Amino acid sequence: MFGKPKHHNDNQPAETRSVRRLRARLDESHQLHALTTDPLLGAVRADRFRISVTRSMWLFLAIGLGFTTTGVQAFLAGKLTPADPLWWGAWLVEPALAGILITLLRWEAEMLSAGLDVEHKAVKRLKHVLLSATLITNVWSSLCPATGTVNAGNVFLHLVVPAVVYLIAEVMPVITHRCNQARDNALASHQAPAATPPALAEVTAAVPSPVAVVESAAVVTTHARLRLPAQMVAALDAKTQDVRAQGRELTAQDVQDAVKVPADYAARIVRDLAA
User: Fold this and answer.
1) Which spans are transmembrane here (predicted)?
2) Percent of the chain surpassing pLDDT 70
3) For position 111, what pLDDT does the model report?
4) CB–CB of 266/255 below 8 Å?
């Protein structure tokens, strides 16, 4: 199931079923670790998380603006009746202001996704004017209702909901920026050189031979690409030096002799060492 069965020495006891099962689980764990720690996967996760959070924020922003529309209509219509065209026209004011705000937020999100700065006084002023108009009209209509008495709960809601809408509009660009930064950091770690000068210096100090230094640097590079554990790196380093001393190239079987990995994973290590 996991490659060709290995021939055991007569003096070496055969592996039990439990040992083979645990070894298979260990091989699978190495493969899963290499996949789940891949920086590209982290970049994809950051993008998906940003999209999910942004959609939720858009949904609740739309719900909040739907509530504030009633306050703006009550402020503008006053004691008018549905027979007056202005009563109907008052319903369009808040959707128009909200449409401008949503368009501005979409522009900010797109610019931040492209890595461009959106911090400008004109942008902030426009958002502040739009959200301040919504806040003032909602609070005013609840404090001076056209009919009935002042309701404390109604005043509270018409104060809090516009404030929450304002904060959502301020937070959404921050969410987009941070998620994009997390994605860029993941991509940068994927594209960065695998062997850093301190790590290479340690390998050089341990193996002074020029050929051995190159081989060890290749093992360090493979370790960074595949996220191999330290004990596997040491075993591969020793095996590589042994094979080079014999005057031949490292093979997948050599890798499997040094570390317990599947054949396809061993071939991948050989390819990365050759590169």
Assistant:
1) 58-80, 86-105, 126-143, 155-175
2) 77
3) 81
4) yes
Domain boundary (135, 168, 191) is at 191
pLDDT at 196: 44
Residue 35, domain member (yes or no): no
User: What is the number of structural domains in the chain?
Assistant: 2
**What are 134-166's pLDDT values in tens digits?**
888 888 888 888 777 888 888 898 889 888 888
Burial class (CB in 10 A: 0-12, 13-18, 19+), 108: buried
Predicted pLDDT of residue 265? 73
Classify residue 163: in a domain, yes or no.
Answer: yes
- Both tokens assigned to 35: 């996949």
Q: Per-residue pLDDT for 206 more than 50?
A: no
Are 68 and 165 in contact by the 8 Å Cβ rule? The answer is yes
If asked whether residues 52 and 149 sit together in one domain, one would say: yes
**And the tokens for 157?**
């809601």
Residue 14 lies in a domain: no
How many Å apart are CA 245 and CA 237, to the nearest integer?
Answer: 12
218 and 139 within one domain:
no
Question: Residue 18's CB: how many other CB atoms inside 10 A?
Answer: 8
In three state form, how does the secondary structure of 118-154 look?
A: CCCHHHHHHHHHHHHHHHHHHHHHHHCCCCCCCCHHH
Range of the domain at 236: 194-274
Nearest to 89 by CA among 99, 106, 71, 77: 77
Same domain for 47 and 183?
yes
The answer on 134 and 75 residing in a single domain is: yes
Note whether residue 119 is domain-resident.
Answer: yes
